[in-house]
Amino acid sequence: MALRDILTVPDPRLKLISTVVDGVDDALRALMDDMLETMYAAPGIGLAAIQVGEPKRVIVMDLAREDEAPQPRYYVNPKILWASEETAPYEEGCLSVPEIYDEVERPARVKLSYLDYDGKPVEEDAEGLYAVCIQHEMDHLNGVLFIDHLSRLKRDRAVAKVKKQKAA
Ligand code: NI
Fold this sequence. Notes:
By secondary structure, the chain is of the alpha+beta class.
């Protein structure tokens, strides 16, 4: 396993639409292993492949609390099958927009399908933090960041702050 560099705004690669993966093989599992290690090291609770420069529809996540054993989750070609009309706000952050947090409103519950680490198809319902995180990560697959849900002013400010952090 190897740590990968995490892209940050305004890297144009973060705007790419990631492509559907052609099945799960050892090379893809190696990418998912690297992504998980990179996410844990950051530390973060979710990471999309494009955040390490790979435009593939792949996500890793771990929503376990600090006092719980790790619960790594892997999503290949995830799809939202249904989203509730009811929405909920959540203060989001993103490893590609470090140290910026703001409230985003998203559907409170979703039903999703994906292939897991072994390439097995899974269907699942998500709510609470899980629903927030999977929708945030799936946005990355379509070149959308959580700051794209904010006003233009807030978005520009966030990007300027991250650029300043990097220059420092
Ligand atoms: Ni993110």
